[in-house]
Specification:
The chain is built from five helices and no strands. By secondary structure, it is an all-alpha fold.
Amino acid sequence: MEFLYQFLHSHGYDLPLHPPVTHMPTGLIVGAFIFLLAAPILKRDAFLKAAHYCIVLALIFFFPAVFLGFTDWWHFYAGVSIFPIKMKIILTGALLIFLAAAVIVEIKKIGGPMIKFVIY
């Protein structure tokens, strides 16, 4: 991945790649939660489906965000294991578990909206 950083540097971009990419899964998770809350208030079942689609997309965008986080850590910090990085790795694992659980709950039709509320 060093070639990518060198290419971007040659074009004047010296910032990490991970932060902008994290907005995708984060925004989709927030959107899913809002759709989940709005569904019973506005009596729109389609919002529950939209919440599920947001979670699926968040799970898809999770992987590029993690990959770029790893490459940024390696490029900018030389892979040094500092406390904030350790915490990010732990929280990343937890996020993956919650996203996978949310997808599985919907696919297998386990529980109702309350379990989704807790997971989201």
